Amino acid sequence: MSAQQAFVIIGAGLAGAKAAEALRDQEIDGRITLIGDETSRPYERPPLSKDYLQGKVERNTIFVHQPGWYAGHDVDLRLGTTVHAIDRDRHEVVLDGGERVRYDKLLIATGASPRRLPLPGANAEQVHYLRHVEDCDRLREVLRTVSRIAIIGAGWIGLEVASAARAADVAVTVVEVASLPLLRVLGPQIAPMFADLHRGHDVDLRLGVGVEEITSAGGAVTGLRLADGTAVEADAVLVGVGATPNTQLAADAGLEVTDGIVVDASLRTSDPDIFAAGDVARAYHPLLGRHIRVEHWANALNQPATAAVAMLGQDARFDALPYFYTDQYDLGMEYTGYTETDGYDQVVVRGDLQRREFIAFWLRERRVLAGMNVNIWDVTDTIQALIRARTPVDTTRLADPTVPLADLAPAP
Question: Cβ of 2: how many Cβ atoms within 10 Å?
């Protein structure tokens, strides 16, 4: 490939920044343009619901690179800039104002946006969503100044913010339409642990009920009216009901889109010169034998290296197992692998579920699909080995903490 090829990356988040880094690590001399609609240079999002939200780390710790990295590595970083269209015929992206930027290879890393609730009162003052660092800054101020917050949605974002709010001595009510927090992700065997965890920290959990209205007075939030007719008083509301991949650019360009931009194992779209990575990509996973879209930090961190190699015309495939983590109160957790609500037939718990020191395994036909370690560390590699082996395990030994976990995994 010519050293003067032009690479354009749309989306200046973690995935976009790591793609620029990965391309430069390949020692290419070509032009790299990184375009993002935010005004802050690329940063990582997990701290926005964890340490940065709680004031445990400074703002300068969340950024992917130091301020001078982009100029020092000849990356043209365009912040506060919107891409309006992809002109595939001319191999150009069209920016706001009409400027066109040529590409030989294009990476779309546009991420996802919080799902909005079409509720009465949704535009009232002190209704918050959490995606951007500015959202987090506003929420930090909220937790310093209000006495009560209502959170709609008991997913990872909702529960992490609930933990941060309780650490700030703010009263918290969490409303969730499902019968348990994280039910879709963890299932009925493990999800009750998170309900107990938050109730143990005086979170008022309202489960199995929807929200009819965000109530307000004089334009300011006063609380929620629930579907069962009850009222929740609050000075602020956080909506955390999932995210939608930002696929409009790709769809308008005629790329294949199905709950994300559809890409192969090398992260190539239906156009051989266009790739996608991070939250927006629905990628074929060689180990799982299917397309999946994963909205987690590890994908945004690791997929760009594969995309960069493939953009340079080399063989590459992304087969890392999905991984994510959470910190809530005194609970630390890592989850490795992938399964859906109807994808497993057994859950095996190794350790003490009541003390929240255990590993849970999701299995199908005695094959490990996913594992979650709670307040137990340095087991992720072994869990990955069990998943990758794709062979039946002895579930009695798997559940027995006296049996070394490594004894159940095949040698690397």
Answer: 9
CA distance 246 to 293: 12
CB 107 within 8 A of CB 277: yes
Give 2's pLDDT tier (boundaries 50, 70, 90): very low
pLDDT above 60: residue 106: yes
Q: What residues contact 81, with CB distance under 8 A and at least 6 apart?
A: 35, 36, 37, 95, 96
Q: At a CB cut-off of 8 Å and minimum separation 6, what does 404 contact?
A: none
pLDDT at 184: 94
- The Cα 46–Cα 280 span in angstroms is 17
Could you please state the CATH topology (level 3) that the domain comprising 6-113+244-311 is classified under: FAD/NAD(P)-binding domain (3.50.50)
Please tell us whether the domain made up of 127-241 is placed in CATH 3.40.190.10: no
| pTM score, whole prediction | 0.95
Q: Which of 206, 211, 209, 184 is nearest to 195 (CA)?
A: 206
